[in-house]
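Onboarding guide, step 5: your first structure request.
Type a short instruction followed by the sequence, for example:

Predict the 3D structure of this protein.
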Amino acid sequence: MNEIQNHPKVIRAWTFYDWANSAYSLIITSAIFPAYYTAIVMDPVQFFGYNISRAALASYSISFSFLLIALLSPILSSIADYAGNKKIFMKFFCYLGSAACIALFFFDTQNNGEVNVWYGIICSMLASIGYCGSIVFYNAFLPEIASKDYQDAVSAKGFAMGYIGSVILMVICFVFILLNDKLLWELGTLPVRCSFLAVGIWWFGFAQITFRTLHENKKLHHGISQSLLMGGYTELKKVWQSLNSLPQLKIFLSAFFFYNMGVQTVMYMAVYFASDELKMQTTSLLTVVLIIQLVAIAGAKLFAKFSALNGNRNALLVLILVWIGICVFAYFVSSAFQFYIIAFLVGLVMGGIQSLSRSTYSKLLPFTNDTASYFSFYDVCEKIGIVLGTLSFGLIADLLGGMRNSALALSIYFFIGLVLLQKLRVSKSLL
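The system replies with C-alpha cells like these:
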C-alpha cells in the first residue's frame, strides 16, 4: 500500500470532486436544462433542412459529445499515465465544463423571438465533454487512494457526496425559480439561467478542494517514450489484448457495456420522456429529479452494504433486474403519480449501480502502473455505450413516434448485461 492509500484527508478531497461536478449532472444533464430546453425550443427543430423532434435533437447531441470524448480520452489518458499528470488533464476538462455551464446563461430567446438553439446545444456539448473528460482522470485516482478492500466504500462515498452537493444547489436554484413564479417577480428566464451560472461557479470552486489536496503517486509513472498522438490508442490496444489473459475482467466489461448503456440513457432522457409523453410541467419535472437524487443517496449506501454481505456480482444482478422492471413499467406509465414511482425506483438503483460498477472494475484490475489507461478503456466502453443508447433512443422515438417504445427497448440492453454478468466467477474475498 502506498503512502496516500486510505488516507482520510486524501479520500475526503477526492470525494469533493463528486460534490463539485455532480451539480452539472443534476442541473444541466437531468433537471433544469432539459426542462428549460423543452419549454423554450419549439417542436420540431430544423436540422440541416429536416424537421426533427427537439427531444431527438437533444439525444443526438448527447451522442455526438460522448463519441468525441470516447475518441479523445485514450490519447489523453495514456499521456497522463506516461507523464504522471492526470491532475493537469482533470483540471483542464473541469475548467472547460464549468466555463461552458457559465456560458449557458446566455442561452435564451432573442429579441426577434428566435431561440439560439445551436448556441445552447454547443454549450451543453462542451459542458458534457468537460464533465466526461475530467471523470476519466478522477476515476483513475481510485486505485491510488484506496486499497481494494476499501474501494467499494470510497466509491459509494464519492457518489453520496455528489448527490448531497448537487441536491443542495438544486434546491437553492429550485426555490429561486419557484419564488419568481409564485411571487410574480416577472424576471422571465433569469432565475433559470442563473442556475446554469451557479453550476459553473460551484463546479469550479469546490473542485479547488480536490486539486489542492490530491497529488499523484509519482512512483507509478515514467517518462513519455512514444508518439503522443498514437500512444493513447496503442495503450488502448494493450488493454484490449490484456483482456485475453483476464477473462473475468473481460466478462465484467462486456456486461457493463450493455447494462450501463441502459442506465445512462435513462438518466439523460428521463426528463424529456416525462415532458413529451406525460406533459408534466417544469415544477413537477424538477420535483421528480429531486426525488431521484434524494433516494439515490440512500440507494448508494444501501447497495454498498448489500454488496459487503452478498458480493458485488449478486448486488449488481439485483440492481439490473430492478432496472429491467423500470423500463417495462415506463412503457405503460400514464400519470404523473406513476412516474413519481418510477423516479423513486430509479433513484434507489441509480447510485448503487454506478458506485458498484466503478469499484468492481477497480477491484478486477491487475496490478499495473497504467491505471489511467485501464480506466480510459472503461470510460470508452461507457461512452460508446451512451452513444449507442442515446442514438437508438432518439431513432426509435423518431421512427415509431414516441419515447415509450424507446424506453421498452432499453430493457433489452439490461437483459443482455444480466446474462453476461451471470457468467462472472470471482472469489467472494475479492467481490
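Each response can be followed by summary notes, for example: The two ends are 19 Å apart (CA to CA).
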